[in-house]
User: What shape does this take?
Amino acid sequence: MPRIPGQIDVAKTEAILDAAIEVIGERGLSAPMEAIARRAGVSKQTVYNHYGSKAELVKALMARRVAQITAPLRDPSAAEHPREALEAYARSVLETVITTKSYSLMRVIIQGAGEMPDVAHEVFEAGPRHARRQLAAFLKTETRLGRLKVENFDQAAEFFSGMVMGHSQLRSLLRLPSDKTQAEFDSLAGEAAERFMRAYAP
Assistant: This one.
């Protein structure tokens, strides 16, 4: 069955994004789109058809990762079980922090931020800020339902994220090995969710 004009080819999209993580992680933000296309097994024009610029491509990378991280907050059962949703979200955040590919890309973006501020801006908006907004929206819903009592949703989202990330993010950015086991990360996620729920109990 022929593809409808304008319909996104999901397989090609994923191949391009996967290739972009690898190539940009290896060669930096200056990596040519042609190299990304070659790694993805598509033409350079296909990459540009999907993403008109390097900034748009990196923005898409961050948006995909944020969608994965925040998935627990959109689970149908999340509203009824906020503690479990927050714990799952925390585990997802921690998984990103200790994943080599995810943070190799972030390190590259930080290094090239001075030369490509537009890309850095897109990364911040599509990545950290968008994730915090989704968490804040979740907290707003829980407060409306009476399961939490939060007055400043953005601030509370920052508090929870800070509890979860801690020094783990800095260690990853500095290419230092993790000082925690998977079991310790799981425990941290559960403890953060439990303490947060107590702090904002109605």
Observations:
- The two ends are 55 Å apart (CA to CA).
